[in-house]
Amino acid sequence: MSDRAPIRRLLSFTKPYKPQIFKATTFSITNKLLDLAPPLLIGAAVDIVVRRENSIIGGLGFTNLRYQLYFLGLLTFLVWAGESVFEYMYKIQWRGLAQTVQHELRIEAYDHIQHLELEYFEDRQTGGLMAVLNDDINQLERFLDIGANDLIQVATTVIAIEIMFFLINPTIGLLAIIPIPLILLFSIKFQKRLEPRYALMRDKVGILNGRLSNNLTGISTIKSYTNQDFEKERITASSLEYKQSNEAAIALSSAFSPLIRMIIVGGFLAMMIVGGIYTLEGTLEVAAYSIIIFLIQRLLWPLTRLGETFDQYQRAMASTTRVLDLLDTKSKIIDGDTILGKIEGEIEFQNVSFAYKNRIHVLKDFSVKISKGESIAFVGTTGSGKTTLIKLILRLYDPTDGAVKIDGHDLRDLSLSSFREGIGLVSQDVFLIDGTVKENIVYGKQDATEEEIKIAAKIAEVSDFISTLPDKYDTMVGERGQKLSGGQRQRISIARAVLKDPPILIFDEATSSVDNETEAAIQRSLEKLTQNRTTILIAHRLSTIRNVDRIYVLENGKIVEQGNHDELVDQDGLYANLWKVQTGAKIAVKAK
User: Fold this and answer.
1) In this predicted structure, what is the pLDDT of residue 174?
2) What's the rounded Cα separation, in Å, for the pair 250 and 253?
3) pLDDT grade, residue 306 (50/70/90)?
4) Is the dihedral of CA 342, 345, 350, 353 positive or negative?
5) Same domain, 460 and 413
6) pLDDT tens track for 459-483
7) Spatial CA neighbour of 193 closest among 132, 138, 149, 251
8) Dihedral class, residue 479 (left if φ above 0, else alpha if ψ from -120 to 50, else beta)
9) How far apart are CA 380 and CA 488, in angstroms?
10) Which of 101, 145, 257, 497 is in the most buried spot, having the most CB atoms within 10 Å?
11) Residues with Cβ within 8 Å of residue 242, at least 6 apart in sequence
């Protein structure tokens, strides 16, 4: 977390918008100055009635009293019209600025999140990140939309009225200024007490959003276990914590305006009494006293609203801190400088060791070399390190020791995009965007032709299914492809990899949760896909990998067996044991 104040960090972010901020501020100040003019105009009207030809307006050359009133009426109209025009202009500027900043900040924060290492997401809830990207940025938008203008106009009101008071009577001006330092000191102390309460409130809403997001994603599991009441209690507990943290902030912030009002009323009474005495003694004109009474009310009202403005400010700064802390987070995966041209497809693990955060080593001094165009498979029991190898190849993590290389280049030296573009991944956890079938197939190659899309769908054996859909390739698949079956989603993900046509293709448990028909279709697709490209398969279903060039059997992050299918079965080791279990041979022996 940065030790800079949130407002300074926000101002550094808004540097590109200085011209717009300057215009918005100018319009706000002009609007407020025109808004403060009516008491002066009322004083001028009283002055005409009381002093007649000797009034201030009379001194401008209008000796006829009716002409003085006509002139005053025209001036009043221009002031009110100008105030309305500048109100419209400052609202357009501040609201436009608020929308621009919240849009740019959200996109920058989202883009920054995309480039953080996978470990970052393992320590955080999705809902918490959503709270930062939506709720926190919206809090800042609301402050820029309303609160920033309020602060500027309050400051303008105080300065303008104080100047007028001093011009009318220095003693009156001094009496009016006495409460201001007290109010500012009180506001700063109040602000410091509010800050931790709003920070806690933002943390609580992040936790609440995290649980809501998690539960909505897993609603089918919740229903199947009839745990709706249990989850309702958990959400109730999180919502109650957020409510209590909010109430703690509200209890303090609500006391601001009443306390400020009590400070102000002392100054108001002093000015009313002293000004009245000066007027009775004849040292202060009646018109001037009228102006003072009207202006002190104009001073009083915005200062009592200062509490609400500071409340908006504190909420915005608590949210801004969370957003800017996110932007200050440095990725542990640093992009390399070397641009890899054409990828041949040779992959090497060179004495690689790796451990997830706060856990024991998954891989220890692991070495293996996969030749260009070779098809290999990693198998083993759960937790043996198979999927970790894939994450290291994609450089979602960096090894603790050793190096992962493609075509002889350490991945840490390469531009991430340059080598990831040469890898196609078909994962067990299929990710489909909330779009059409076509949009999901072209996800890895946006400029693909219609013919290329259809060929890819045919190789993935999904074209027959697509032809039965109401809108064919333009059919919406729903969020995460929920309108499709697991096998259909898997085949679309294979079509996506086929269309990308990468030199390296990775299947991570692609057949673990599909039916036999889909598995057979995937196997037929594999026969076509593995030709002339490096192919890596992670599989529990050993039938999927029978025809690969080499199989590596992992146990506790080490290779304990290797060879092709027939060789490993003949060795009668761990692989042979797994094969017997899956084919039923071992069960048959036990049955005898």
Assistant:
1) 76
2) 5
3) low
4) positive
5) no
6) 888 888 888 888 888 888 877 777 7
7) 251
8) beta
9) 27
10) 497
11) 201, 204, 205, 207, 208
Are 510 and 554 part of one and the same domain? yes
Q: For residue 29, what are its two tokens? A: 């100040």
- Give, in order, the Cα–Cα distances in Å from 470 to each of 144, 422, 433, 439, 441: 47, 34, 19, 16, 17
Element (H, E) at 379: strand 375-380
Query: What percentage of residues in the chain have a pLDDT greater than 70?
Result: 89
* pLDDT (tens digit per residue) in 512-542: 555 666 667 667 767 777 777 888 888 777 7
Residue numbers of the domain that contains 443:
429-501
Q: Are residues 181 and 275 in the same domain?
A: yes
- Give a yes or no: residue 526 inside a domain: no
Over residues 52-69, the mean pLDDT reads: 75
- How many residues are present in the chain? 592
- What's the whole-number average pLDDT of the chain? 79
Coil/strand/helix, residue 531: coil
CATH number at residue 471: 3.40.50.300
Mean pLDDT of 365-377: 89
Based on the fold, state whether residues 183 and 280 are members of the same structural domain.
Answer: yes
Query: Are 147 and 215 in a shared domain?
Result: yes
Helix (H), strand (E) at residue 347 = strand 347-355
CA nearest to 459, candidates 497, 503, 433: 497
448, 512: one domain: no
Task: Give, as one character, the DSSP assignment of residue 411.
Answer: G
Total number of domains in the chain: 3
Give the pLDDT confidence of 319-340 residue by residue, as tens digits. Answer: 778 888 888 888 888 888 888 7
Token representation of residue 564: 């092709």
| Better-scored residue on pLDDT, 3 or 109 | 109
DSSP reduced 3-state for 436: strand
pTM of the model: 0.71
Q: In the 8-state DSSP scheme, what is residue 329? A: P
Per the domain annotation, does 339 fall within a domain?
no
Whole-angstrom distance, CA of residue 132 vs CA of residue 189: 27
* Residues 458 and 513 both lie in one domain: no
Q: What angle do CA 300, 301, 307 make, to 5 degrees?
A: 100
* Calculated CA dihedral for residues 333, 337, 339, 345, nearest 10 degrees: -40
185 and 227 fall within a common domain: yes
